[in-house]
Design a protein that fits this description.
The chain is of the alpha/beta class. 37% of the residues lie in helices and 23% in strands. The protein has a domain of 169 residues: Rossmann fold (3-Layer(aba) Sandwich), CATH 3.40.50.150. It has a 7-stranded mixed β-sheet with strand order 3-2-1-4-5-7-6. The longest helix has 18 residues. The protein is globular, with a radius of gyration of 18 Å. The two termini are 30 Å apart.
């Protein structure tokens, strides 16, 4: 959901992010459905965002304890409302995180911000107990105009000062994740590319979607007037690049991967 310290900390806005809560939530539950039952598991939710779904995951799994990790102070402030003795939230970089003895390491829509997925997944694998499960979902949208236009605009407006990888092009092809899971010793695995059809009011609504994610990086490095100017130009170019008509179908590609260690 939210971000890692390997890139500048974005100014996450929980309210803006949750404007499309229903659309963002479905992949979370599809990822949860890949998990196999475990009695009273220890769970880590990496990139937990505002903690609402972390708490729901804890209840769904009948977990003994659940730790949510995020880097955004705004998101963690919201997550505090869902904290209790078996559910805790901590500040940390999911790209560098390493734990021990977890039965489930879960990460929904967060790993895309980490530069080196192979290294991160190796650390997460090392955080699992025998028979542990890894479940990860990442957007795979770098080729869509919503991302390509923003990438071009960032290069024009900011040049070398543009946020590193502002639209998360770190994501690998699905088959690469299958190979990584196999190499890390996950004797059982499931990897798939899934398209989620989101019906938005218009193409311009894609800008509102991006204001909850990739555009947060620009809010951090630009003063308010320059940020608003960039958003307006992004909106103008994106509407020209996307099909006209209402509603607009935002066909959103995501990769879901799951693996289980022997034992």
């Amino acid at each position: 959901m939210s971000d890692a310290a390997s890139t500048p900390t974005p100014q996450w806005d929980p309210e803006q992010y949750n404007r499309f809560a229903a659309e963002r939530e479905q992949p979370f539950w599809d990822l949860r459905a890949l998990l196999e039952p475990v009695a009273s598991p220890r769970v880590a939710d990496l990139g937990c965002g505002d903690g609402r779904l972390t708490a729901a995951l804890h209840r769904e799994l009948g977990a003994a304890s659940t730790m949510g990790l995020d880097l955004s102070p705004a998101m963690l402030a919201e997550a505090g409302r869902h904290a209790g003795e078996p559910v805790t939230f901590v500040s940390g970089d999911l790209g560098a995180w390493r734990g021990s003895g977890f039965d489930i390491v879960f990460s929904n829509a967060a790993l895309q911000w980490v530069p080196d997925h192979a290294a991160a997944l190796e650390r997460w694998r090392g955080s699992l107990a025998e028979g542990g499960q890894l479940a990860v979902q990442v957007p795979a949208k770098a080729d869509h105009p919503s991302h390509a236009v923003l990438r071009e605009l960032a290069a024009e407006r900011l040049g070398p000062a543009a946020p590193a990888d502002p639209v998360a092009t770190n994501v690998l092809p699905p088959e690469a994740y299958a190979a990584l899971l196999d190499g890390l010793g996950f004797t059982r695995q499931h990897v798939r590319l899934q398209v989620y059809p989101h019906r938005l009011a218009s193409a311009a609504e894609v800008v509102e979607w991006m204001k909850g994610t990739s555009l947060t990086r620009f809010r951090r490095v630009l003063d308010p007037s320059d940020y608003e100017s960039l958003v307006e130009e992004y909106r103008r170019r994106l509407v020209l690049a996307l099909p006209a008509g209402r509603p607009y179908l935002y066909a959103f590609k995501r990769i879901l991967l799951w693996g289980r260690l022997p034992g």
